Model the fold of this input.
Amino acid sequence: MIRKVNQMPNMPAPYKMRDWREVSIQYDRLVFDFEAQGNFFPLIWWDRSRRNVNRDTFGLPSYLGASGGTESHEAINTVAAVLGATLAGVDKFNQNGHNWVEMLEGYFTVENGERLFLNRTFLKAGSTFWYELYPHILIYGLAACYPEATGLQAIMRETSTKWRMACESLAAGSGVPDFNHLAYDFTLGHAVDNERWKEPDAAAGMAWIQYMAYTRWGDDRSLVAARSCLEFLKRFEGNSFYEVLLPFGAYIAARMNAELGDMHDVSKLVNDVFEGDSACRPGWGVIAENWGGYDCHGLCGSLTDWGQRWDAGPPEEGWAASDPIRSGYAFAANTFALAAPLVPLVRYDSRFAADIGKWMLNAANAARLFYPRALPAEQQSCAFYRPDPDDVIAYEGLRKWWDEQSPYATGDAIRYSWGSIDIGLYGSSHVGIFGGIIEQTEVEGILRLDCLRTDFFHQPAYPTYLYFNPYGEDRTVAANLPHPGMRCYDAVTHRLLPIREGQLLIPAHGAVLTVVLPEDGEITDRDGKRYCNGIIIDYAIDNGGTSC
Done:
């Protein structure tokens, strides 16, 4: 189903899986500590400018050593930190006497009249789609996690309406908006271009935003907007992947197919995320290679970014910038973020279960390489500095080749003189996405992936987990049922699974998508879907389902 995943090993090597939930909790504890000691610590500061809200808020630096204080902070960093900790199980609505969730309302730009949730407290939209849509995706996720946060609910409703109106404006009466632009100017009411690049996967981010609003409030205009965005992606010639937004469109396409009976091409959207043949950003996709003896399969970023400084010339005669042996630059933020829409996608289209499970195993194993202790000193740009004893602050990215080393942990801060350290919070703050989704089982290499954790504003559902077996023979893992007598239904094979001595069988090189059911639940079928006590447990029994 996902062509690039076929190039990845079933079992990555060397296999060294981190406890991503523990990394997430330790990261939260460290970066929100006003008493932390060390160079560049504490990281957090109070923002007492009270712009947009009548309360103190907080800031975190995007890179270690970056100038901080007052409003020098980004929503993509701080909101990701709060959301990530929440997904990993930390209550950020009431933590040590602070409500970090409500503080984030400071990014809702009331003071300048824009009234959008943007990357900085003083910005206006019109510079770049993804920097302006992605903060909304993050804060909507928090709104789903904290329904008691009435301020976030209000921000979500107002901003989704503004984006819907922008979507309608971009359609200009045709019914299909044109997102093949750089951004949208809300003051002037039209698209913005810079004659250098375009960000068409904004349609995917917009589809996600509009469908979240539709599921939250039931406004049919939001549903029409979501469908029109997916229609743009359908008509777009080539691959529209620019930064982080396209996978959210793939997820929404699968969800709308399952919940509404739509017919969107999920396979094309998912494969466009992985392939690296983007029409607007050549080479942007998912790595499927071994770099210097380390399996780096599953990481997300550039497949073609050069491994040497542009002004240094090829490392040896005959090498070119497009040489696949020397090229590649994966990023922590993009890798972590990719899991948020793709893991819950399998609930709505179980055909992707094995491929998404295999990809997540590879990505979760390789993501450790973003952290300082994973590589020898000569294979990282800032080995002179170890920021924390638990190794929970990552490099911005991982290059396939740099300084005659492969792979090489580094970033853009030093290269482009943004700062003195390539280790930063910008990507690290997204780790809670892995932390909330991934749990290791007692069998090395078999992960339990929580498919509901980032399935925001979903319909009532039973606990749902994805398992992938990387081995060439069947393996069993603990079913981990909350109560004796509960049952496991597999949405891949569309049947109840036998539980023997508390063990669940995972087929060789295969996956199961388990839905944990009550012992006495009544299973019924209707309109191609399967229910237990009226709650959907399988969206597509017509694709091979049999009666239970």
Summary: The chain has a mean pLDDT of 94. The chain has 13 helices and 22 strands.
